[in-house]
Amino acid sequence: MTDTSETPRTRDPARKHKILLAAADLVARNGFNSVSMSEIGAASGITGSAIYRHFDSKSAVLVALFDQIIDDLLRDQKHVLETTTDLGKALDQLIAGQVEFVVGKRELAQVYHNEINSLPEEDRRRLRRKQRLYLEEWVHLVNEMRTELSDADSRTLVHAAIGAIQSPLFHSAGLAEDRLRVLLADAARAVLGAGR
Q1: I need a labelling partner for 70 at 20 to 30 A (CA). Which of 30, 96, 120, 163 fits?
Q2: DSSP assignment of 34-97
Q3: 52-83 burial code (b ≥16 CB/10 A, e <16)
Q4: What is the C-alpha separation between 196 and 193, in angstroms, rounded?
Q5: How far apart are the two ends of the chain, measured CA to CA in Å?
Q6: How many C-beta neighbours within 10 Å does residue 146 have?
Q7: pTM, entire model
């Protein structure tokens, strides 16, 4: 006797990632409110309705994208802080990670910056808490390196350094990416008073 029961469908494990990449691209170009689920589906190679197998809503796609962004930054930061004992080298690696996010993943960084206020309030607050955890590790590191600074001083400098790194999100620098990486890293180090 043969088994006539249906074999369960297996989902492409990369499908969710493809949806997030497609959404990032479309939202970066057109803005969150102008992008439809069917457009995200078409760009990721599925129907718009098939996205609902992975995400409850368009907002859920954006929330998942932002969670992935900040979780990746936090994971990389944790690795740096756990594996690097030299404070200067650790700071250089954190700076390099933030520069790579802005230059190498510019589209994602732009979407994060421009569209975080499109999220439901609860998700926005949760993501902002994660973002503060990320920044606090920078502040602790700067405090250890520059003991003459108050906590408020260090926090201000960290925000200024990250602001300098993120400045090309709002204009086209017209520079090759490698040159832009060097300049942004140097600017962040200068702001933090952590020259090489």
Answers
A1: 30
A2: G--HHHHHHHHTS-GGGGGGT-SSHHHHHHHHHHHHHHHHHHHHHHHHHH---HHHHHHHHHHH
A3: eebbeebebbbbbbbeebbeebeebbeebeee
A4: 10
A5: 74
A6: 15
A7: 0.83
